[in-house]
Amino acid sequence: MGDLEGLLEKAREAINEEDAKDMGKKFLKGEFTLIDLYEQMEAMKKMGPLTKVMDMIPGMGGVKIPKEMLAQQEGKLKIWKFIMDSCTKEELEDPGEIDRTRIERISTGSGRSVTEVRELLKQYKQSKKMMKMMKPGKGGKGNKQMEMMMKKMGGNFPGM
């Protein structure tokens, strides 16, 4: 069943109410930048190891995600943080402007490979696409789309 109260408490500790409201407004507008992704990663880091957080989410505790996979994802989050630390403010605000030469510069500055920089950009685009799908109204599909996506991932989350 998870520990929703514990999860909410950890979330409150990780992100203040004002920041959460700002993120909610951006989410409703369909805006999402690498800065937002960075802030989400920081908040997740404050909440603790992914294995513990996943166990607290109702319905996710029963989903058998190998600990190695979660550890690998935590490692990717660290790498992506290094990469984002090597981006300019403009690149973080408008990742669509990051071309091949900028990818190479970011790669060199972060000490990470071009492939890892491209992987971060791919993840960002997927996250942004998911945000747009969730956006209520005209362009988004809202809860039905999210429920379908979660079913594809193997979870059973009615009413989501």
The CATH superfamily bears the name Signal recognition particle, SRP54 subunit, M-domain
The stretches of 5 or more residues where confidence is low (pLDDT under 50) are 153-160
Could you tell me the CATH topology label: 434 Repressor (Amino-terminal Domain)
- Overall tally of structural domains: 1
Q: Assign the structural class, choosing from mainly alpha, mainly beta, alpha/beta, alpha+beta, or little secondary structure.
A: mainly alpha
Which geometry do the CA atoms define?
Answer: globular
CATH architecture heading: Orthogonal Bundle
Tell how many strands the DSSP assignment holds: 0
What's the mean pLDDT score?
76
For the record, give the distance between the C-alpha atoms at the N and C termini, rounded to a whole number.
15 Å
Can you give me a brief rundown of this structure?
With 160 residues, this protein is mainly alpha-helical. It has nine helices and no strands. It is globular, with a radius of gyration of 17 Å.
Your description of this structure?
This protein has helices spanning 4-14, 17-29, 34-47, 50-56, 67-85, 89-93, 100-110, 114-134, 143-152. It has 160 residues and is mainly α. Residues 153-160 have low confidence and may be disordered. This is Signal recognition particle protein. Pfam families: SRP_SPB.
Could you outline the blueprint of secondary structure elements for this entry?
Layout: H1 4-14, H2 17-29, H3 34-47, H4 50-56, H5 67-85, H6 89-93, H7 100-110, H8 114-134, H9 143-152
Helix pairs in contact: 1-3, 5-7, 7-8
InterPro entries: Signal_recog_part_SRP54_M_sf, Signal_recog_particle_SRP54_M, SRP54
Protein name: Signal recognition particle protein
Pfam family, one: SRP_SPB
